[in-house]
What does this fold into?
Amino acid sequence: MENRPPYWADFVVQFNRRHADVRTEEWRGFLRSRSPLYKVDQIIKPMLVGHEANDVRCTLAQSDLIVAAVQAKKIRVTYVVFPDEGHGFYRPQNSDSWSTPSR
It folds into this structure.
């Protein structure tokens, strides 16, 4: 929530009210209570993590953290980074490869 792109500046107050105001410890605790990173001890199955390298909202560092935490538990993780995507799989070749089961 702290990685808001600059063009969101006009509606930060509304965003804080609707989603979470990360300036307060109450909201930070609320978000932590729902974050997979803080529930790694409950993860027991292999994971598939996909990340768009040009995403300004969800940074690559965030995916790196969850992948490292799961790997530290010795749980298998497949980590795919799409270097030519922003927030969402919009390029047909990436969308197809991400959503199509391998045969």
